[in-house]
Amino acid sequence: MSSKNVLLKNVVKIYKGQGKKDVVAVNNVSLEIKAGEFVTLLGPSGCGKTTLLRIIAGFETPTGGEVYIGGENVTQITPDRRDTAMVFQSYALFPHLTVYENVAYGLRVKKQSESRIRQSVAEMLELVGLTGMESRYPNQLSGGQQQRVALARSIVMRPSVLLFDEPLSNLDAKLRVHMRGEIRRLQRQVGITGIYVTHDQAEAMSMSDRIIVMNNGVVEQSGTPQEIYLTPASEFVADFIGMANLVDAVVAEAGEGQGIIDLLGAKFRISSRGDLRSGEKVRVVIRPEAVALAGDGGIPAVVETSVYMGSSQDYRVRIDGQTISVVAYNPDESFREGDRVYLRIDERKLHVVRK
Amino acid sequence: MQAVRRDPVLAGTIAIVIVSLLLFIVWPIYAVLKESFISQQGLFTLDYYREAFRQSENVRVLVNTLWIGLFVSLFSTAIGFLFAYADAYLKIRFKSIFNILAILPIISPPFALSMSFIMLFGQRGFITYHLLGIKDANVYGFAGLAAVQILTFFPIAYLVLAGLLRQIDPSYEEAAQNMGASRWRIFRTVTLPLVVPGIANSFLLVFIQTVADFGNAMVIGGNYTTLAAKIYLQAMGNYDVKGGTALATILLSISVIMFVMQKYWVGEKSYVTVTGKPSRERQLISDGKVVWPVGLACFFISAFILLLYILIPYGSVVNLWGIDFTPTLKHYEYVFSLGLKPIIDTTYLSLLSMPITGILSMIIAFLIVRKKFFGRSMVEFTSMLSMAVPGTVIGMGYILAYNGPPLVLTGTATIIVFSFIFRNMPVGIRAGVASLRQIDPAIEEAAQDLGASSYKVFTSVTIPLIKSAFFSGLVYSFVRSMTAVSAVIFLVSASYNLLTVAIMGQVDVGRIGVAAAYSTILIIIVLAVTGALKLILGRMGIAVADM
Ligand SMILES: Nc1ncnc2c1ncn2[C@@H]1O[C@H](COP(=O)(O)OP(=O)(O)O)[C@@H](O)[C@H]1O
Ligand SMILES: [Mg+2]
Fold this sequence. Notes:
The complex is a heterodimer.
Chain A: E1 6-15, E2 23-33, E3 38-42, H1 49-57, E4 64-69, E5 72-73, E6 84-87, H2 99-109, H3 114-127, H4 143-155, E7 161-165, H5 173-190, E8 193-198, H6 201-207, E9 210-215, E10 218-223, H7 225-230, H8 235-240, E11 245-254, E12 258-263, E13 266-271, E14 281-286, E15 291-294, E16 299-308, E17 312-319, E18 322-329, E19 340-345, E20 351-353
Parallel strand pairs in A: 3-8, 3-9, 6-7, 7-8
Antiparallel strand pairs in A: 1-2, 1-4, 4-5, 9-10, 11-12, 11-14, 12-13, 14-20, 15-19, 16-17, 16-19, 17-18
Helix pairs in contact in A: 2-3, 2-4, 3-4
Chain B: H1 3-6, H2 8-37, H3 47-54, H4 56-89, H5 96-107, H6 112-121, H7 126-131, H8 142-167, H9 170-178, H10 183-212, H11 215-220, H12 227-237, H13 241-266, H14 271-274, H15 288-315, E1 318-320, E2 324-327, H16 330-338, H17 341-370, H18 376-388, H19 391-401, H20 413-437, H21 441-449, H22 454-465, H23 467-483, H24 499-508, H25 512-539
Antiparallel strand pairs in B: 1-2
The structure holds adenosine-5'-diphosphate and magnesium ion (MG).
């Protein structure tokens, strides 16, 4: 199998609004996805993920910029002649064809021999666990089975790049979690480059080699799930991925790649990617699990709410007019609303973002 | 989506569609306009209009046209509403007849009811002469024409309004009932307001049909001349083509205004469709105080119409209508002695244009719904417009446009086929558009994504998904071709005559029996061909919607 890399250069997509304002759906995006990599495009609804994916597939022509697949400029090439295959949100199975014919469709278009088609389809159906379903029609399948047919139909083409547009959003929660693993297994097994669009951060975190966070048509950050979570590049990313307290702080002492900040009336030593300047105002990301509550010794606060969540106790505590979320896993003791508590913040887990 | 530029097959198809619409819809209309505004010397002039209106007769014709349009549309909409209400709301047993009533005008010659009326109320009418003994009954004129048109066109209103009433969610009315409103009050304050746009819509649709109605106006209009008939008489009877085009332009303006109002003003205003499908079935009203009067009215109208249609085959097998009712086959013998040419020609040309119409309308529907390209709204407007352009106007346009280079088609079969195609396309397009809108566009994208070219996508995915609309369009276009008269009457020639035109000729010379025999043959061919098509398609597992 030859998986290929995908390269976007300054891609812009503007939808002409009829009478209304034009929409800049993708705003000057440049990025590279390496061959064999599994990347998710993550962002809130309307941020341009689908548009970007459809530009890679060829359904939309970018208003500006170029698309390269495996080094070849495909910007002006129609989807039928691109080496990509897409799994649609609605599955888009052919309702008038059986499972077998759905999976065979692309191979038939390619004019492969009947015996080869039979073999490939059988292998593929086996791979997705649908052997025996060949003669059913899509409306005779459950949502999860339809999803597998859609996957099979795309993968059987042995494309160089597989594209997914929120493929799991029509499944119930349990199946969704299961299919994450399935898709990743299939993608690894056949070794195809995968680009996966989702607005669900848990999906992105659990599946991706790399996450590309988008907002308002631009790329906010690109990195491994750990990088995105631990060192968000912007307030938007910090806020969008997981729970985050964003708190103002002032740099008390600046050093090379590190410094001391004044946060909630206490001093913390932190590391920073960029250089800090003394007296600079910054925002600090405090993840709820980076804070522990104690009966004494720390930053004083008052418990506002305390909710038992089973595996954790979730608090909101109040310090000088600011509210901070704290999550305590396996707590030794729990606090009740109105209790006076002390915060202990793990300074290794603090992360500074510029305003 | 700028995909069109990158896809030569698609771009080529769009170009062909645009060119053919320009050539066979826009150009003939332009030819009419041009002829009416340009003098023999090639200068712009309004003389032909001035001339037309100097004749007080033509002013009367215009007033006649508008007045009968208004009258017929009002009554048709009212009767249509009555039937629609009975259909959607009342517990009545003979509803299945309603569908037959809606189909009959489509599968018979457009002036069939005029013939029946003459048989019933004419000088030798069964009722007027035979039963009542009136010696000089005159069925020709406003009353006869209006009655025939109402009975021919009210099914249009019925279909529009029944569709709308069935979509009303019963919970609206139940909510009103729950608040203590009486049945009449609910009807007045809930049901009626919900269908006001539909009422306006059917009024305009019937109006367009009425003012364009050529066959009935010619057969039973008598001295009550309308524009549609006058255009033909002026151009073909008086050889005053210029005067004819001036009148044609006026008729065209009326129709186009109504069409634009219908499509862009009324068409957008539906409260009912916003709410989507009703949540469950309506509890039908069985209260005798409502069911009896409405049911009886519908019953009598239905029975009367059925009787009128039955008169046609019956009239074809009696010796001399009104005088001597002994059974005979002599009218058929006469028809066969004249030769089968019009029968064969009509059937052949209708069959020939059928697949072309069907495929072209699906392609246009596909382009309208799925593709964005320069000229898309023009394609949509023009192709639907041809439904509103009166047949007499288009017929006149065809002889003017294709009388000289670059396209000389006068007197050929080709010109007839083209007129069939472009006049019958809108129905197929509408069916195609409606069924494409129900289909997730991602399905076609998936096919393209798997390597299918746009041609392959269309044939292997789009057409199979909308095949029901496609075949309904086929059947319908065949039927419409068989029964068309207003446009083709300008286009027939010594070498190609058509059934409907032959029938009109026979009515004109008073051979009602022969006309009835021809009409019966026409109806039999229509039923046989559509029946065979439905049977074959049914075997293939394709359901064809009723027309
Ligand atoms: N065909 C279109 N025409 C006009 N605007 C569009 C079209 N498709 C998407 N948009 C707009 O572009 C923006 C990005 O849309 P999309 O790529 O679908 O976002 P996402 O997939 O991230 O939810 C949105 O504001 C959307 O309304
Ligand atoms: Mg999307």
